[in-house]
Amino acid sequence: MIRFAVALLAAFFLNISITYADPGARFAADHTRAPDASPHAALETQVSDILDRFVAELAPDALVELTPETALAFLTGEERSYLSTAFVHFSIDRPARIYVAYDGMYGERPFWLEDLGFERREDIDFIVDSEDPYEVWQREYHAGEIRLGIPSFSGELKPYVVFAAPLDGGEAIEITPLVDGTDVQIAAEGGEPFIDDNDYFNALPAELDGLPVLRSYESWEFVSRMVGFFRTTNYPSSGQPDHIIQTWQGDPREEITIQWRTSADAASDPVLWYAPENETESVSYARAETVTLRSRQIVNDPAVDFHRVRLTGLEPGARYAFGVSANGGENWSEVRHFHTAAEPGAQSWQFAYLGDPQNGLDEWGDLIRQGYERFPEIRFWMIAGDLIDKGTERDNWDQFFQEGSSVFDRSAVVPAIGNHDSHGGHPTLYLQQFALPDNGSEHLDPGRTYHLTYQDMLIVVMDSNYDLIEPETQTEWLDRVLGESNARWKVVIYHHPFYASRPGRDNQPLRDAWGPIFDRHNVDIAFQGHDHAYMRTVPMRDHRPAEPGEHGTIYLVAVSGTKMYEQELRDFVAFGTTNERTYQIIEMDSAAGTLSYRAINADGVEIDAFALEKE
To answer: pTM here?
Structure first.
C-alpha cells in the first residue's frame, strides 16, 4: 500500500544580502571569512524600522518609485545623524587625512560626506576593474575612533574604501578595524578593494598608492537599502495552483516531494492525487501542509502560500500521474507525471546538468523547454548554483519558478547554492522554497549540502561559498558520504569551479580542502558553474592531468543564462568556448556501464561530448 507523509517548510527569516569571495587576493596570502553574525545588526534594525514607516505612510506606487533624494527627505534628523555614522567604524593611532573612495558610475554618493566635512578631490580619482570610476573625498581627523555612514540608499553602490595618510609625513598610519569582518591591506595596483569580490585597483594615484586601506565586503552594499527595496513581481500568485515543482527529500526509489503555490489564504483544502500511470483505479490522495511566506518587499503580492506533499512508499522504477488542487478536489490542475528511480542497474536513464541561469530567465526558460521537448525522459535537472541574480528579492525567484516549473513539474530539480543565491550570507529564500534532503553536513542548514543516490549514481551537493562558510565544514561529511557509497558512479555538484575559466579567478581553498577527497574516492565528474562560459577539463588527479590508466575527475563549467564572461583556457582544458548557452544531457546505460555526455547549445547543436565506461 502506498503511504504518504507531509513535510513542513523551514522557518522564514529576514532577507539580507552578501556574495562570495574569490581568493587569490593580491593583498594577502591569508583568507578572511565573513563573520557568522551580521556586524550591522543595529543598523539593519534601524533601516527596517524606517522601511516600516515607509509602508505605513506611503502608497505602494510611491514605495516602488522611491529615489535617494526622496528617501533622504523622509528621514528624521535623528535618523539622518545615525545613518551618517553607522557603517564603518575604525580607529587611527595619530592624526591623519582620511580618504573615502566609491564607485561614481551610478550617480549616487554617500549622502553624509558633506555633512561630515569631507571635500571632493577630483584630481586623485582612479579606476577599478578597468572601467569603474572611483570618486575620492577627503577630510582630516585627530587620533582616535572614526565612524562613517552608510554606502547608499539604493544598494547599487558597493561599499566605499577608506585610505589613511599621516599628516606628519611619518610612518604609515595604523588603522584598527572595529567592525567584525573588515580588514586593512596596503593599497597597490592589482590589489582588491573588497574581501569577497575579484575587482581590482588599476594604477592608483601617487597620493594613495602604498597607503593602508580599510576593506569590507562588497555584498554589504545592501545593509542600508531603501531605494529599490520595494518591488512588484511580474508573476503574482493567484487562487489557482502554479509553480509546481518536484524535488526529493529522501530515497528517489520510493518517494517524491511535490510543491505548489497559491496566493495567501486562497486555498481552502490543498490536496494532491496520484496513481501509477494507467491505473486509475489505484488513485490515492494526500493533503498538503501549507506555510505562508510574507514579503514586505513585494507590494503587489506580499504573501503567498506554499503547499507541499512528501509521498513515500512508492514503487521503484515506476511512472506515476498526479494533479494538485487548492480546493479539496473541486478543481484539479492538468495531469503531470513523475518517475521513481529503479533499483541499481535495472534501467537506463538520463538527466540534465545546467550552469548558472541567473540572468535572462525568459531565454533560460526557452532553453530548458527545448531540452525537455527533445529529451522528454529526463529524470532530473541538476543546477550548479546562481539560479537567480539577487537571492533576497522574491520577484527574482517568482520568475525562476515561473520559467522552471514548466519542466520541474514533470522531472525533479536538484539544485546547488551559488553566491547570488546566498546574498545576505544566509540563503534564506533558497532554503524556504526547496524541499531537499536533510542529510548534509551537520555544521550547516539542511538543504545547503545533501546527497542522494539515483540508481547507480551517487550525487553529492555542496555549498562552495567559502567566504561565508569554511570549506572544512563539509570535508568530514564529504569524505564519509563518498567513502560509504558503493555506487558505480560518483559525481559532485557545487558552484565555484576548482579550475576557473575566467581570467583573474581562482578558488584554491576549495581545491585544497576537497580535491584530495575527490581523488581518494575516485569522483568521476564535478559539475560546476560561476564562470559563465563552457569548459571541460581532461581527467584531473592531484591537481594535474591524470596519467594513462589513472583515475581522474572531469571538471565541467557551463552557463544556461544570458550572462557571459571571457575565458582563459589552460593546458588541462580538453574543450572550451564562450558565449554559448547550453544544457547538458547525460545518458546512463546501466547494462553496458556507460555514461554518455553531450553539451547542446541554444540552437540545438551539440558542441561537446565524451563518454566514460565502468565495469
So the answer is: 0.85
> How many C-beta neighbours within 10 Å does residue 203 have?
11
Note the pLDDT tens digit of each residue in 265-320: 898 999 999 999 988 788 999 999 999 999 889 999 999 999 999 999 999 999 99
Q: Are 294 and 288 in contact (CB under 8 A)?
A: no
Looking at the predicted structure, is the pLDDT value of residue 16 above 60? no
Q: Are strands 412-415 and 378-383 parallel, antiparallel or unpaired?
A: parallel
Residue type (1 letter), 453: T
- Output phi, psi for 403, to 5 deg: -80, -45
| pLDDT tens per residue across span 393-406 | 999 999 999 999 99
Residues 102-126, buried b or exposed e (16+ Cβ, 10 A)?
bbeeeebbbbbbeebebeebeebeb
Number of residues assigned to the chain: 615
Q: Which helix (H) or strand (E) holds 509?
A: helix 508-520
Task: Give 517's Cβ-side CA count (13 Å radius).
Answer: 23
Tell which residue, 177, 194, 233, 187, has the closest CA to residue 22.
194
Query: Are 509 and 475 in contact, with CB atoms under 8 Å apart?
Result: no
Spatial distance between the Cα atoms of 458 and 492, rounded to a whole number of angstroms? 8
Query: Using an 8 Å Cβ cutoff, are 345 and 490 in contact?
Result: no
Nearest to residue 189, comparing CAs of 128, 121, 101? 128
Alpha carbon distance 492, 474 (integer Å): 13
Say how many CA atoms lie within 13 Å of 368 toward its Cβ.
34
Give a three-class secondary structure readout of 217-235: CHHHHHCCCCCCCCECCCC
Cα 373 to Cα 116, 378, 442: the distances in Å are 61, 10, 39
- Tell me the pLDDT of the chain averaged across its residues: 91
User: pLDDT band for position 24 (50/70/90)?
Assistant: very low
Residue 463 in contact with residue 426, Cβ under 8 Å?
A: no
Q: How far apart are CA 527 and CA 349, in angstroms?
A: 18
Contact 194, 158 (CB under 8 A): yes
Question: Residue 505 has what pLDDT?
Answer: 85
